[in-house]
Specification:
Two copies of one chain form a homodimer.
Chain A lengths: L8 H19 L4 E2 L1 H8 L3 H8 L6 E2 L3 E3 H11 L7 E5 L3 H7 L2 H5 L3 E7 L8 E2 L2 E5 L3 H8 L3 E4 L6 H11 L3 E4 L12 E4 L2 H25 L1
Helix pairs in contact in A: 1-4, 2-3, 7-8
The first copy, chain A, binds a DNA duplex (24 and 24 nucleotides) through helix 3 and strand 2.
Chain lengths: 220, 220
DNA sequence: TAGATTGTTAATCGATTAACAATC
DNA sequence: TAGATTGTTAATCGATTAACAATC
């Protein structure tokens, strides 16, 4: 492998999936796995698995395969899970609370340290031992606690303003849940979650299938 | 264009994004747009836009460009938004309630008609005018109302069981929010939402950036 | 050692971009 | 008509798959 070569997004996006499957294998008590076995489970080619893993170095052994635990830990490292990134949630509505209760993130090393909102009726409420704070305290909190990531679950119109404020306060990564392609003139990494896009793809596939079924019926 | 040729997923996944941008243009009162102008706004090539649209037919006009409203409606049709798909939510926890309140889906033609749970304390509660029903009523409700899509936001362990039940009841599409690749032996279309995968990709990008910054600092 | 399976190179496939004739 | 921009073909680029020598 060549450590200088830039890893393509196609590969990076597959890493969390590998990580998930390896976590399952680990729980099942499986010690070693070949690229062939893993490819069968995941529904991809073994070639792709070996190719992907070799972007980051040789984690396997000829004639043996991969040690599940080692590979799991290595992918974790590649994904930066050991960095113990601290996160905050801005917007303690249903989505914010859902994310706060999503213990999967903690398991993956993302530590939720604060929840913010502006609505008086929700300030002070406890969600998973974390008291909802007012946005007035946001900037100081981020600086004091060296928070890396903000999950933004505020109403659509507020999103750019809140994102800008977070970037100014020193946040390095934004996870945006509003249905827009968030763009702000700050040096910050943005991941947009477009839930309704996913639903529309489901709708398209449903559509295609119903159309095919109709065509087949007409043939007979 | 060749109507027989299968549309690639790469293209399909871009359609909701086009739809979003066209919706914005429509709101701005813009009547026509060229592939070049749209490509500038979206940060992709005009070639890709023309190529994508031509998978489905010629919606533009030489020397003029595309009529925003027509294109918007055509993409809506392709995505099957006119089919008025009916949806239900299974699991009225935070995520379920967040989805229930996500009015974007309604705007896109997905009509939420029912919410289900098994916890006595939540049955009967109203969320956006829809009363939470007990799962005992699920099968009858789906059949009677011809529900197409179920959004599954139940705890991890319950997911396969609930999905199976939904498929048996006649649901055609499942939108799964548990962090697993849902697989059941039924003829049903499944879209998995892997929220933590997205967070991990954000973590990777953050990691890369911090590493680069460190390297640059060491050089100077 | 023999068998298995990796790491890696080469071949293929598919997706994106460039180019331009057609045409509004 | 002249200018603009599409629809579409061809060229390029990147990602996936196949193949196999290296080696555990």
């Amino acid at each position: 492998m060549n450590p200088k070569k830039k890893i393509s997004m196609a590969v990076v996006k597959r890493l969390p999936r590998y990580y998930r499957y390896l976590s399952d294998l680990l729980k099942l008590g499986i010690i070693r796995i070949s690229s062939k076995e893993l490819s069968d489970r995941m529904g991809i080619t073994s070639s792709q698995i070996r190719q992907d893993l070799n972007c980051f170095g040789g984690f396997g052994q000829q004639g043996y395969g991969y040690n599940v635990e080692i590979l799991y830990n290595e992918i974790g490292k590649i994904l930066g899970l050991g960095n113990n990134y601290k996160t905050v949630i801005i917007g303690a509505g249903n989505m914010g609370q859902a994310l706060a209760n999503y213990t999967n993130f903690e398991k993956r090393g993302y530590k939720l340290v604060g929840i913010f909102d502006v609505r008086p009726e929700i300030i002070g409420k406890k969600i998973r031992d974390i008291e909802v704070m007012h946005m007035d305290e946001f900037d100081d909190f981020v600086k004091k606690n060296k928070v890396h990531i903000a999950m933004i679950t505020v109403p659509y119109e507020k999103t750019p303003e809140v994102a800008t404020r977070a970037a100014r306060a020193g946040i390095k990564g934004l996870w945006n849940f509003s249905p827009m392609d968030l763009k702000i003139p700050y040096d910050v990494i943005i991941e947009n979650v477009h839930l309704s896009d996913g639903l529309m793809v489901l709708g398209y596939r449903l559509n295609e299938k119903l159309r095919e079924q109709k065509e087949n019926k007409e043939k007979n």
